[in-house]
Specification:
It is built from 5 helices and 28 strands. By secondary structure, it is mostly beta strands. The two termini are 26 Å apart. InterPro entries: Peptidase_S1_PA (IPR009003), Peptidase_S1_PA_chymotrypsin (IPR043504).
């Protein structure tokens, strides 16, 4: 498949054009027939009850292994399991059995599993996080709350040091143990704002919606309807369906129409003055052919496509310490290590808050404006195991924020369109 015309857009003084392609796409004829009759789930209301998160799965492990304090991957690729008041020799086997039962045997890597002591169980930390989140996350300058399994504490992320005194007062006012919390500067997470044309369309390439440039996340199926997923904030109205058109790469080349975008909700566990969901996501029914691939570039801000990654499957909820990649129309293919897993995260660009979202950090810039909707995946050879949808980026340190694939699936009622032209 030959290259199409290339669009170059100036953002912050930098030319962010997509330059060249060294790979080819499968022929359009190879796409298996899929009905595009709309199985429409328009304006589905936000419902916390129907969303199973990483933290729910970890609580399930603790139910089987009392004293379980969480888990993460270390720099050697090992799965580190934290335990309270349990001898490692007696706990290791039980913990491994419970983890594989809940997550699957692939959760324990070839590098092995090691045990570390913990002060508090995961359930204790989760209860503390839930207790403080409505008060803390409603304050200006607060970015996230998270059960940090590396430190065995609850982390409170703030934009800058000036927010610290107010958070300390809130903790004292709530009467919770001060030594259970870490207040850390993470910088704001700002929504990525909104370059070549490709057919069939795939994940990681530019789309245009009215007034915005974003990134196509990944191909998906909603019932019998074939389409793709990108961010809700890339639509004409964030939350709620107004049938926003999407073009690839630019108008007038129509690629799809928004048909699912749940409303945001307030009250309950949503912080005061904010509106909440589990993911910044929307589903578009497609008007063109789609391939279950993700574009990959040679690296950050090198936008030539070096290969097309197969999508063999998915990881619904990755874990702290894992390395994830994303491909976006502005910064290309970059990566980060998951620093905050299943955190409650405020968007710095408005009143939106996301339950059980993730932040991946890097020493180098790994996100930029226009990357909104980028597919987030675990890279293995020439395979991209889908694991999330990027919605924001920031600095100090460099990071990008994403919703886990499990939350996107639950809210939109979709499954990824994977290798073999099937839902997975």
């Amino acid at each position: 498949m030959s290259k199409q015309s290339i669009l170059r857009v100036a953002v912050s003084g930098a030319m962010l054009g997509l330059v060249g392609c060294n790979g080819t796409l499968e022929r359009e004829e190879a796409v298996a027939p899929v009905s595009r009759e709309a199985d429409v789930r328009t304006n589905a209301p936000f419902s916390p009850a129907r969303n199973r998160t990483l933290d729910d799965a970890l609580l399930q492990v603790e139910a089987d292994v009392p004293g379980f304090g969480g888990m993460y991957y270390d720099e050697k690729g090992r799965l580190v399991v934290r335990m309270v008041h349990t001898a490692p020799a007696s706990a290791a086997l039980a913990a491994e059995r419970a983890i594989t039962s809940v997550f699957g045997k692939e959760k324990v890597p070839a590098e092995g599993m090691v045990m570390e002591p913990a002060t508090r169980t995961f359930a204790q930390l989760k209860a503390l996080q839930e207790r403080i989140t409505p008060d803390v996350l409603s304050q200006a300058g607060v970015v996230l709350t998270d059960v940090d399994e590396k430190t065995n504490r609850v982390a409170i992320g703030i934009e800058r040091a000036a927010a610290r005194p107010g958070i300390e007062k809130a903790i004292d006012r709530l009467g919770v143990a001060r030594d259970a919390f870490d207040i850390v500067e993470v910088g704001p997470v700002l929504p990525a704002n909104v370059q070549g044309a490709w057919r069939p369309i795939t994940g990681g390439i530019q789309i245009e919606t009215p007034g915005k440039y974003c990134t196509l996340g990944f191909a998906a199926l909603q019932g019998g309807t074939l389409g793709f997923v990108t961010n809700s904030h890339c639509t004409q109205t964030q939350g709620g369906v107004e049938y926003t058109p999407a073009y690839q790469a630019v108008y007038p080349d129509h690629a799809g129409t928004e048909i699912s975008d749940p409303y945001y909700s307030s009250g309950g566990s949503c912080p005061a003055g904010r509106i909440c969901r589990y993911s910044d996501s929307a589903f578009f029914s497609t008007s063109t052919t789609v391939n279950p691939l993700v574009a990959m570039t040679p690296g950050a801000f090198n936008l030539g496509i070096s290969s097309w990654l197969n999508v063999p499957g998915k990881v619904l909820y990755p874990s702290q310490g894992q390395v994830v990649h994303k491909t976006g129309r502005t910064s290309g293919t970059t990566s980060g290590t998951i620093e905050w897993a299943c955190a409650t995260v405020n968007s710095g660009g408005g009143a939106h808050t996301y339950f059980c979202n993730y932040i991946a950090t890097s020493p180098q810039q790994n996100g930029a404006g226009g990357d909104s909707g980028s597919p987030v995946y675990i890279l293995s050879g020439n395979n991209a195991w889908l694991t999330g949808l990027m919605w924001g980026a920031g600095s100090n340190p460099w990071h990008f924020a994403f919703a886990p694939l499990g939350s996107v699936q639950n809210e939109l009622g979709i499954v990824p369109y994977c290798q073999g032209f099937v839902g997975c």
